[in-house]
Each structure stands twice: as structure tokens, then as C-alpha cells.
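Before the break, one more example. Copy the sequence into your notebook; we will annotate it together after we see the structure.
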Amino acid sequence: MGEIAKLGYIGVESPAYEEWRTWAPDVLGCMIGPDGEDGAVRVKIDEADYRLSIHPGEDHKLAYVGWEVLSHRDLEAAMERLSRAGAKPEVADKAVAQARGVDQLVTFTDPFGQPYELFCYQESGYRDWNPPRPHAGFVTGDMGLGHVVFAVPDARAAVDFHIEAMGFLTSDIVTLREPLGEMWFLRANPRHHSVAFLEVPNSLGLQHVYVESKSLDDVGYSYYDVLGGDECPDLFMNLGRHVGDQVISYYVHSPAGFFIEYGWGGLEIDDLERRSPHNINLRKGKRPELWGHKFRFQPNETVRPYQP
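Here is what the structure looks like once it is written out:
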């Protein structure tokens, strides 16, 4: 694998940023971390000061995706790889790094112009994990913040860049029904995927962010007791289990327009096993769901659909 160790944080802009102060604790059982300098609401799910940052803005918009490297040497090596691929990484001003709560920060864009960052040494001195309700905590650590999924017009272009310029490995490829194309899942550590790309004609943007509880009970409580189960009008997909990463999860519209996948039980991939002729992890063209995950296409009027 490359120098990138894990997905570190995600920032978005939204006119509904203040809603996250209650939505994230109520629905997901998350803490609220220290506000950003611009009043951004920051969502805390582990020892890091934040993992999601919701900035004030006129529209729902991706602001940045932060990929973590483990040292300044890895940061330099990752910059060299990006430069060779023509990505033109730039060292950010110290003030920007401080605003993100990291020691060193590099910025660049993906092939479609989406804002990416590399960082090392994120701050973690705000508060210990103390959720607003009984909660087993989230699976992060060496695997970072869950995963992020983008809708892109050309999945192969996105995949080639993330493999060649960023050092990711392929975990799964799923062929979807028309008009959708292929969906590719890439990993930077044992987590089944840290990033995935859904090919959608004439579309570009953040589709969903996955957070993983250490307990299935946390997912069930959120789904049934907080949201009301299958009758919740804000659902995008109901409770189900994926074939690829084996996660049991549901998808819900967030106040910032993109979807949150809240799940449990994600597959971890041992790369020594992947070299075995009996490898069964890479599935191309198979159905994506073991059960459930039925789409809900009629969100209520208070939900703001994602606008790429």
C-alpha cells in the first residue's frame, strides 16, 4: 500500500450546519467537539477532536476530505507520488493547518477537482469519549473514519488516480443496473474500503459517509427507537446487509444533504490471505446486498437532497 494510512476527517458546507448540534448526538450517538474558527459544528466519535466538520455555507458543498499519513516522512513521500502523477500538491499555510487541528497539511484535488488534503498529527486533547447516551463507541483507530463514497461521471478515472497517485488497493467491483455503471471499492488499510466510487452519468459529488459502531445494538437502537424504523421518512435505504464488506447498516439523509450510512460488522481484509488462490473477497458483478437495503425515494419536505 501507499503512504496514506486512513481516512481522517471530512468537511462540508451547509446552511443547516447548526442542526448537527442535536442531529448527530440524537441519531448517531456522537459527541460534539470544539467549534471551528468559523463556527463550524464538529462531530467527535473517538479520541480525535473531530471527524466531521460542518461549516456554515449558502449551499450543501464538499469542503475537503482529509487523508491521514503517520509521519512527516510519509507526507513527503506521498507528495512525491502525487507530483509524479501530476496532481500538484501544495503545502498549506500554517493558519489553515491550525484551523484543521493538524500539525502539517498538504492540499490537492482529485481528477474532477474535488478538494483533498493530506495531514499528519491531528489534535486529540478536547475531551475523552463521553457519548450523550450509552454507546459502545465507533470503529476507528488504525482504520480511521469509516469510508466516503463519491458519485463520479467516470469511475475508472477516479480509481486509476487513487491507485496510482495515492496508493490505494482494490477490494471489490460491483456492476450496477443502468443507467448506473460500475462501483469500485478501494482500501488503504484492513478496512474493506475507505473510499468508493459510484459511476453516475453527469454527476459529481459526495454521496455518503459511513460510520461504524462497535455494537449492532447501537445501530438497531438508532434505527428503530430514534428514527422509527422503516417508516422514517428521512431514510435513503432501509436496514440491510451488504455482500462486499458484510456491513449491517442503514442510510439516512443528513441535515447537510449527503447521506450517512450507520453500520456494524465491517469486513477486514488480510492482505496475506488476499494472495491465496482461494481468495473470495473480490467480487465483480455479484449482487450488492445479502438482504434489505431497499431504496426510499420520497424524503419528506424538510430533507434537502444533495446538490452536486
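The CA atoms of residues 21 and 32 lie 7 Å apart. DSSP finds six helices and 17 strands in the chain. Try to locate both features in your own notes.
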